[in-house]
Amino acid sequence: MIRVAARLFVFLALSVAAFQAALVIGAPWGHLTWGGQYPGALPTGMRVVAGLSFLLMLGAVWAMASRAGIFGPEAQARARVAAWAVVAYSGVSVLANAATPSAAERALWLPVATVMFACSLAVVLQVARDHPGQR
Question: pTM value?
Fold first, then answer.
């Protein structure tokens, strides 16, 4: 079950990363991010932020896949703190997407953020149960 949760998280995080990459190169989806305050393509400064979000999502993919044991036991142990950071970030993402004034953003990203939070929490809690020394 842990690998199913990790794989679902990875799929969703890579989807978010692809969305961020599209924003970086000028996709006109600004209404679906940052509270909808940038209709159309994002301004340059926000494209840089989207690029950082892209990298953050790739890091989250590594952390969850590693913590689930997909990359082996050594990576699983190394990813402990990073995986908990992903859980925290995912939780904040749920709150932010629930509070956004943009109905379109909320409709798209709140379900994604909620599933990512649930999957990341499931991974870290299951590993903590299975490997008590790696909490």
Answer: 0.92
